[in-house]
Amino acid sequence: MARVQPARTFSTTRVEAFTDGVFAIAATLLVLDLTTNAFGRIGSDAEMWEALADMRDSFLAFVISFGLLSMMWVIHLQQWREIARVDGGLLWLNNVRLLFIVLIPFTTSLVAEYSEFYAGRMLLPINFFFAALLGFLSFLWASARDGHLLRDEAKDDAHAEGLAGLSAVICAAVAVVLAPWVGSWGFLAFVFNEPLTRVLQRRSRTRVTPGD
Fold first, then answer.
1. What is the pLDDT of residue 37?
2. How far apart are CA 197 and CA 166, in angstroms?
3. Are 9 and 87 contacting, i.e. CB atoms less than 8 angstroms apart?
4. Hey, is 115 helix, strand or coil?
5. Where does 118-187 have alpha helices with state H?
6. Angle at CA 198, nearest 5°, toward 196 and 200?
7. Measured in whole angstroms, how far is the alpha carbon of residue 52 from the centre of its chain?
8. Which of 34, 44, 88, 159 lies at a 20 to 30 A Cα distance from 197?
9. Each residue of 113-170: pLDDT tens digit?
10. How many whole angstroms separate alpha carbon 41 and alpha carbon 150?
11. In the prediction, which pLDDT does 38 show?
């Protein structure tokens, strides 16, 4: 009988470095939409403050996107500390997730410039939804098959750890639903990400306990 060869796996070091670099570049590029706004001729402090006030939509979009991008990086950091190695499937799930991460500066600029249009309001929350979804699916892949890509000590808590990603997906979906009516205010759904994560983890532990 032919021996089954194990799937080829790689160290997480270079993948994590590449991923962190993409997150850092995306966060940096967010500010370009602010720096490319020309004030024109400014003749007084009052005109300067008025020009800055006119940029309030761009400032709001920048703050929201930077905050949510930071939250997704924190979730990524928490999940990948449990991953011992990567295979081809996880590599490409992570790469597709990064595709949506690098799109965030572009979709953020659309919110700032075209929030009066449906597409302008929708593309950023949709962007975040798919970024969150791919992050969740990446950890789901790593923890599948008895945690085949996880560290041995992390396998028992893999399900609870993955719920942080699921919570982000749920909040992103709520933001997508709310965006047509309230625009960027729909991202307030992410305020509930941490409480929702704790509720999901508590319910998960409650279900496991009776069978122990």
1. 67
2. 8
3. yes
4. coil
5. 118-147, 158-182
6. 70
7. 29
8. 88
9. 888 888 888 999 999 999 999 999 999 999 988 888 998 887 877 777 788 889 999 9
10. 58
11. 64
